[in-house]
Each structure stands twice: as structure tokens, then as C-alpha cells.
Design a protein that fits this description.
Helix content: 25-40%
Distance between the termini: 31 Å
Shape: elongated
Strand content: 35-45%
Oligomer: single chain
Number of helices: 5
Structural class: alpha+beta
Length: 217
């Protein structure tokens, strides 16, 4: 998804550096006006390159989204009353394991929808899973008992989802950014004695997250 963005970034940066060289040569030849125009053009090119670099880094970890896709497969295993283990397999086949407290498993995500202008850079609606947590069925438990929340996001210097909210320069490119969440009972039965391991699919579409029991293979 970021391949075209990188091409724009490199092209803009190289063009900007070339224009700086031309501007310096024009200045030495005492063509002041021409030098200033070329410096302004160089600054514009370098700014575009910097913007492309910001987008490329900020969307690292996001996945292109054109239809409903499986964002993760989660296997839940009961450990004790209101305690369970969640084994998460992501699309890149990486596996992460979390011990969670609660009755249900909760997952949320960031979804970033770009305007047609950004599609020229190869950017499409994208998503990134953000957090996984245990969720209690009773509000009193949610307010008073142990909370377990972990990150599913990719580590990066900054996140385009946050930058788009803070800086106006990205707003012409972003159509919408929003969070979406889903949750489901962590086990197939309420009591620990009868509870059993269950496999779920966390799916994502342009309308948000949903969870389904995985189909037997």
C-alpha cells in the first residue's frame, strides 16, 4: 500500500534537492528572482516528500481494506472463574498470548478512510487492531474488579490516525477516522466446569469490527 507513497517521497525529495542546486547556481549568477522561485519550488517538493514520509511511517502496521477480511483468529481457553487465556493469531501468522480477566473478550481497532485524492498515492481504507481486553458482563464487576488491557498495535514513532486529528495538513487526504470495537463471551458455557476452548474470528469491513465463531476446517 505504501509503495507508491515511497515513490512520491523519493521523487519529491530528489527533485527538491535538484532545485536547490539549480537555485544556488542561479544565485551565484546573480539571477536573484529565478533563484527565489526555484528555492520556493524546492521547499514545496521537500514538503511533499516529508508529508509522504510521515504517511508511510504513520500507517505502518495498518492493513489495506477493500472487503470483509479476517483481522485475527482468537482461541480462548478458560483458566478460572472470570479468567481466561486468549491466543491471538494475526494475518502475518504471528501469535500473541494474553491472560485476561472477565466474562467476554473485547477487541477494538482504528479504521482510516482516505479521500479519492489520497488514492492517487495508493492509499485505501485501512485498519489496525489496537487493543485486546477482558470485559465483565455485570457493570458492577466492570467498575470494581481487575481490568486487563493489552496493546495489539504495531510500535511506530507516530500514528497517522492520531496525526490526522491533530494536523490540518493531513485533513484534505482523510475522509474519516474512527474506532470500532466488538466483544463476545470468552467461553462457550457459563460455568467453568462446562466451559471449553472456543475459536473466534475477528473480522473487519469498512463498517467496522465484528466477531464470529470460526468455521470448522
Amino acid at each position: 500500500m505504501t509503495g507508491i507513497v515511497r515513490i512520491f517521497m523519493l521523487t519529491s525529495a530528489l527533485l527538491g534537492l535538484m532545485l536547490i542546486g539549480v537555485a544556488v547556481a542561479a544565485w551565484r549568477q546573480r539571477r536573484r528572482l529565478s533563484s527565489m522561485v526555484e528555492l520556493l519550488a524546492a521547499a514545496l517538493c521537500l514538503s511533499v516528500g516529508a508529508l509522504c514520509a510521515t504517511i508511510a511511517v504513520g500507517i505502518r502496521g495498518y492493513n489495506a481494506l477493500t472487503q470483509e477480511v479476517v483481522a485475527a483468529t482468537i482461541v480462548t481457553e478458560p483458566l478460572a472463574p472470570q479468567r481466561f487465556r486468549a491466543t491471538v493469531t494475526l494475518p502475518d501468522s504471528s501469535v500473541r498470548m494474553f491472560d485476561l480477566a472477565g466474562d467476554a473478550i473485547y477487541v477494538d481497532a482504528h479504521i482510516l478512510k482516505w479521500r479519492p485524492l489520497a488514492s492517487l498515492l495508493g492509499l485505501h481504507t485501512a485498519y489496525e487492531l489496537d487493543r485486546i481486553a477482558g470485559r465483565y458482563a455485570r457493570l458492577a464487576d466492570e467498575q470494581g474488579r481487575e481490568r486487563t488491557v493489552y496493546s495489539l498495535a504495531t510500535n511506530k514513532p507516530f500514528n497517522t490516525f492520531d496525526l490526522a486529528r491533530r494536523y490540518w495538513v493531513l485533513r484534505p487526504f482523510v475522509d474519516a477516522q474512527y474506532g470500532s470495537a466488538t466483544f463476545i463471551n470468552a467461553t462457550a458455557a457459563g460455568g467453568l466446569r462446562d466451559a471449553r476452548q472456543v475459536t473466534y474470528e475477528i473480522r473487519v469491513s469498512t463498517s467496522g469490527l465484528l466477531v464470529r465463531a470460526a468455521r470448522p476446517r
